Predict the 3D structure of the following.
Amino acid sequence: MSGISDRMLQLDMALTQNGTPATPHLRQARIKRKNSPTDISHLVFGPQPGKKHQLWITDRIMEPQTIPHFFEFLMNGELPGDRKTSRPLLTFEEVKNLTRPASEWAPAPLNRQARSTGEWIGIRIGSYEDSSRLWPIAKELHAMKSRLWEGIPPISERRWQELGLDHPDRFPEACRYFVAVINVFIYLNTKRTKAALRKTYNLIWDHLSVFEQAINAKRKAEAEDGVYEHVSVTGLWYEFIRAQYDSICENAHHWIIEHIDRIRESIVQEVALHQPDHPDHYSDKQWELTNKLHDLAENTSQADYTIMMPTDGYKGDSLPVKEDDCLTEAHGGGFRIETISWSANLSWRASDYIKRVRYLDRKEMYSHLEHEDMRPLRGSGRMSDPAGMVISAISQIDAQTMAREELRGLPNHPDFVPWIEYARRRSNKHLGFVAYRLCHGYSPEKWDMFKVKFEGNICDWGRGMVGINDVRKACKILWIDGKEKGIADDDIEAAKK
């Protein structure tokens, strides 16, 4: 930057250290629009008098399906995120021992456990015997959390297109998906939830440690020459969970940024093309567009510093618990000139990122103006000049991109869809769905017509995805007539059995 650009930057920073007179108004307007995350208390504290009605469900913070995936990993070594462990693995029979009491298979004195390790893990995930980490959350929050945990997009690309969520008129609806995803990670990073997830993991580590001792003792006892391969089940547990968390965060963050960038690009183009009637103030259209850019910038910021699942305090990780650490003097001021880095503490990440973006935003803006030989400042001189507004928008986008790479590192999104690859595995070749007919108030002809329409509607699921024909063929609908199975109409519970 030249001397004049640097002086303008320094002056700008001095005048806006604590924001501008418009900052409180803009913040309140953003909150009122409800297009970015603000507060999740209505989603996590259960039914509250006077609050909007919600459907509630008990949350097992570590999703139960994590455990069967972990058991599979113990045998095949396939980590979430399309990676493979280099650690020694268990045999099929050894994994079966996870579901059997140690008294049935372990050598003395490690054969005194009356319950299997698998049963203990189930208790720790969530049961009446260990219910201290179970609490109600809104069904919408739980549903999104479950999708993201399994690597399923918040909404399929096919459905996104059907709803027209890239269209300007559907901007609030698109933002609702961004907010729903970010809310999951706000929830997972709150002190109570993060501590509960850590405790669940550590309790399971303890049970696996006992199992690990028994497995290695059995291997040693059965080795003819006393030489055997030692296996670290606890090490595999940490490696799996760390990979699982990384995969969850990478997929969710990539999805949000990809869709925000797509929408933001079209809005910046609109800003450039729109010519206001009055150069002295923003037109209604310009306010609409800048409000959208403000909302997308806020969603981008919160996604960048919130969508993380640190393992501080986890057994197997050297990092101690960090959420109790207070902000330091280094976090003071309105700008961060130094490069930022990752932290396990959400408050630290948010403070570093926000202040770093504020600095880089201004630095980029004056760099762009310098490149344009200050023409946007010397031209119309009007606040509503599209050229100046475009420079402001691009500067903010560039600043967020740079701060994101400092905080999160370079993007590392694999060309890998977790749930597709899981369905592709040999052991899951017969995945599909069972549909019961539990209503006979219509003629067989109408029922057959319904089946044809239903199968026609779902036959192209995964539209836009490449190389999934083998999985699509495996995922079939098996139609069963309840009457032929002796199941009464509307008896859903009987069908579940």
